[in-house]
Every structure is written in structure tokens, then in C-alpha cells.
Amino acid sequence: LCLEGRSHWLCAFVVASVLLVVDSKRARQPRCPSSCTCTKDNALCESAGDDPSQSFVKSEFTEIPKESFIHTPALHLLLFTANNLESINEDAFLGLPHLEYLLSVMHLLTEHLFQVHRKQPHHVDFNLRGNQFTCDCKLKWLVEWIYSTNTTVDQIYCKGPASQLDKKINDLAPQAFDCITTVCFLPVLKFESISVEAFSFESDQYVVFAHPSLGNAAFWSTSTVICKPLVIDNQLFIIVAQLFGGSHIYKRDTSANKFIKLQGIDILQIRKPNDVETFRIDGESFFVIADSSKAGFTTIYKWNGNGFYSHQSLHQWYRDTDVEYMEISSKPHLILSSSSQRPVIYQWNKSSKLFDRRTDIPEMEDVYAVKHFQVKSDLYICLTRFIGDSKVMRWDGALFRELQTMPSRGSMVFQPFSVGSWQYAILGSDYSFTQVYRWDAKKGEFVHFQEVNIQAPRAFSPISIDNRQFLLASSFKGKTQIYEHLVIDLSN
């Protein structure tokens, strides 16, 4: 047996017998086998025997190397008690065709030990009784292993936390564990942007930015505020909303591999665009532009097969800053945010095929933007205020009711987004750190998760590439940034 100690290697052949037996009820020193040299805590033996069991109690070695038991093929049982092992080679237990029981008691349990077990070609019983298991994310690996193995594992129980106390670990499912996540900063993109959106087209992933200072791109100008992608019947369109020179719609010409201008948007209706939203109703494609000028109209446009035409003007004079499309009770709705009134909710009328004003959101003046998200079947909205309190509200079947508030310090974006099964919301700030919140399913609300430093954030967009999750963050005064979402495996 070759075992690495803390300062030296200790090598010897070990007889397959009990190295040390600790009995707290008897003070009598156990007999040392004749072929072994014994100390208080361990024994070293020079020849192999036929005893089918072996114990390691309070051993000083820290590693079990490859084929450590190759000279004891008759072993049926291995017991590790109160050891300080730091690593176990994946082939440590090779050469034990008769091993049936591997007992791990006190301080030994590591995920690697169970990875090692997978190398065993035959059935082995595990006895894990006597361990104090805290059933949190650090133990998720063990639950996954029990869940997937055909090995016999005696019934074991959770000793904490309080929510899991005395639960049977053997009956837990891996999905019951919610491991810690984080957002990792990646290199920045060396340009400013005031909008960003990721989208898919012909099985590829794309990102479109509104770049306020790049004047030599294909269709951007120095007054661009929004670039919105829209895919209709495998055709890609980009709606480019501009403060000066009119807004335009471009179409991707796949044969020429470039964008061509399809049409302009009436400058008498859209004078100062501030947001663009796309949506589909009953198989038809629409987009709506929120106009923030005193004389402009927030206007809905509809695709007719050849181009987009004005379908409905919602109202004038209200200086709308944001428009959000969502379904409430399976019916299409729009929410308009404005600097001069509370957010207004419009509902689609199937008969007239127009949006009718339904209600507003009470006691919510000075809302800059509204974004929605869902948790299971429940509908929520995030309302952004530049100064004061931004809010999260929940639809109760008749009204949106306040759920929680977040302090705002120069906030122009409060963006909910999901990554896998995790739901987040990120509240931007022009004057301090941007705050990231994570949804707590037990509390039914967001809890603070982390903060990031972004100069004048204006938009966020998640994107998935090769099973990696990223968040793109546009910055009006700094550099466009990329964050990667990571899941930290606390068991390693």
C-alpha cells in the first residue's frame, strides 16, 4: 500500500485485516497482528493475507494513489473512519473483484470517492450512516449519485438546514437543490451603445446594437436610438429609429449579403422615437413605436406582405417613453409609459382588430419603462423610475398590485430576464452601481444578488451560445459589456 503523508511517502504491503479497532467502551489495547508494526493510530503490515475486511481509522496519509489495494484482492469490506484524505485516484480501488462494502464514516465524504466507485465493474454496497449531512447545494452531488446509481445505499437523513431536517436523503431529487449562481465579467466591446438585442435567424445567433456615435455603418447614423430586429417568413428586417433624418426599415438581401432600405416611416407621425416593440397577433406581424415628442403619435404598424403600413395611432401629446407588449389572461395587451401620465394598459379587440384603452396603473406617476416576466403562471411587471422607487407588481386577475420596491438612483432600465430556471432582474443606475436581483421562489419576490459597475446602462439582453449563457449590457457613456452566467459547484 502506497499512501502519501503530509510530508513524506509511506509505502508497504498491507495484510487484508483490521488496521485498528477503536472501542470507546474498553480501554484494552487491541492486539497487533504479528506481521504488522503498530502505533496508536495505525498499523503497517508486510504481507498479504486472506482476511476479507480492512479499516483505516485516524490515518495520517492524505492520498489514496492508483491501485492501492492491488495486493489485497480478497477484500470484501473497506472502512474509513475519521481520516483526513484530500485526494483519491480514480483507479484507487481497482483490483478488488470481491469488494462488496465501502463504509465511509466521519469526515471522508467527497464527490471524488463516488466518482472512483464508478470505476468498479461490480456491485458495491455503501454504508454512509453516522455522517452529519447538511442537505444544501454542497451535497447535491451525493443526491445526484444516489439518484442515478444502482448501488445499495442504506437510508440516511438530513441533519440540516431546518427546512430539510430529518428528510430522507435517498428520497430527495437533484432538482430540489438550487445551486449558487453568479455573473462573471468578460472583456468589453469597445464602443458605446444605447440599445442591444439578441435574436436568432436561420439557426444562427445575432446581436444588434444602436450605436449613437458611429456614423459610417451600413444604416446607422449619429442619431440612432433603437435598432429592432424582426423576422417574418424567413426574412430579416431591422427597424432603425432615429431622432433626426427620419426612421427607416431595412431588409436583409441574402443574395447580395447586405441590408437594403425597404421604406421610410412617416416623420409627421414619428417625430421623436424612444422605443420599438414587435409582436404577432393571430399570425400577423406588427411593430409599435413609442413617440416622446409633444406632437408625435405612438403608432402601430402592420406587415401586409410587401411592406409596413400604419395600422393604428394610440394617442397624441402624451410623450410616451416606452411600450411593452404582453398577454394578460391570454389576450394581447400593450402598456404605454409616459412622462405626463400613469402607465396606460390597452387591450386587443378581436372584432375591430384594434387596441382599446382598458385602464391605467394607479399611483405610479413618472414611470419611464415597463417590462414583464412570468414565474410559472403568474404575470409580473418591473416599472422603472429615474428617481424614487422602481417597483415590481403582480397581476391579480383585475389589476397590477405592488409586490416590492427597489431604490432608484438615475435608473432608465429595470430589465427582467431568465437564464435556465433562474429568474433575474437588473436595475441600472447612472449614479451608482447597477443592482442585480434574483427571484426567490420561497419568498415570492426578488432578493439582492450582486452589483456590477456599468456607466449609464440603457439595455440588457441575454444570449445563449454553445450552452454558455451571456448577458449583453449597453452603455451610453462607457463601453458595451458582456457578462457570463456561471453556476458554481460548491461541492468541488
TrEMBL record:
Protein's GO biological process: myelination
GO CC terms in record: extracellular space
Family matches, as PROSITE patterns: EAR
Signal sequence segment: 1-24
Keywords, alphabetical: Glycoprotein, Repeat, Signal
A Pfam entry, by short name: LRR_8
Keyword presence, Signal: yes
Protein name (record): Leucine-rich, glioma inactivated 1a
